[in-house]
Amino acid sequence: MAQEPLIRLVDLHKSFGKLRVLDGVSLDFHRGQTTVVVGPSGTGKSVLLKHIVGLLRPDRGEVWFEGRRVDTMTESQLAKMREKFGFLFQMGALFDSMTVRDNIAFPLAEHTGMSRTEQKDRVAQALKMVGLPNIDKKMPAELSGGQRKRVALARAIVLEPAVVLYDEPTTGLDPIRADVIDELIIALRDQLGITGIAVTHDMHSAQKIADRMVMLHEGHIVADGDPKAFHASDNDLVQRFIKGEADHEDLEAIRAGFEK
Questions:
Q1: pTM: predicted TM-score of the whole model, two decimal places
Q2: Nearest-angstrom CA–CA distance, 228 and 108
Q3: Which of 6, 125, 199, 237 could lock 45 by a disulfide, CB 3.0 to 4.6 Å apart?
């Protein structure tokens, strides 16, 4: 018997004014897998993530998590559900005025009844997982970009979530630091069974961390498969995205702009 998906999106539609961002998107996400969502800027990738945790509600369609309908939940129900999600924001989003320890402990203080000692122990465990023990007293300004991203990841997993949402996890990092983040995402899946959903433009990272790759374009899914099948797609848009090639219309427009 097939396992029920952890997250299910059913015929999602979302527009902002006249701009149609999601146009009938249906996707299932299964436990313990990392799904990477790619596509040109403005195609609804981050909007998709926001629907999963109820930060946006669809104009039409359904969102399900663990067999419960998300898009009809009350705000208090959503708040409780979101405790099962970790978020790694694009730029880390650490609180500059807080130490590393207090940044990571923030979700514990907000959502649990843990004592300060228990919080300290959990923070130490999370920092150890991301390979940064003994930096808990430092301020974010004292850290490198890669360290800040790893601290943000420690904060994302400190509540021991079932799912982590990664929004451009390697943006702003050099290839070596980006690879550290990729390895951490893989370890969280393999060692803790965390389900991951990553939005990224980094095709090298996507290839490495993905069990499955999905491409969004103009509100529709145009490709969906494991990395090998995705890279073998005969869809021209998919191939241009993989290779980083501009489309012919853009190239013609640039050339025309230089004509006398």
A1: 0.89
A2: 39
A3: 199
HSE-CB at 165 with a 13 A cutoff on CA atoms is: 18
- Sole residue written with tokens 């405790």: 83
Q: Tokens in use for 140?
A: 């974010």
pLDDT at 243: 84
| Three-state SS at 53 | coil
**pLDDT tens by residue, 246-258:** 777 777 777 777 7
Strand order through the sheet with 7-16 = 19-29, 7-16, 60-65, 68-69
Rounded to 10°, the helix 145-157/100-111 angle is 20
Q: How far apart are CA 154 and CA 103, in angstroms?
A: 9
Q: Report how far residue 251's alpha carbon sits from residue 257's, in angstroms, rounded to the nearest whole number.
A: 10
Q: Given the DSSP bridges, would you call strands 68-69 and 60-65 parallel, antiparallel or unpaired? A: antiparallel
What is the number of other CB atoms lying within 10 angstroms of the CB of residue 198? Answer: 27
Q: What is the pLDDT of residues 33-67, one digit of tens each?
A: 999 999 888 778 889 999 999 999 999 999 999 99
Distance CA 257, CA 250 (A): 11
- Structure tokens belonging to residue 94: 């650490």
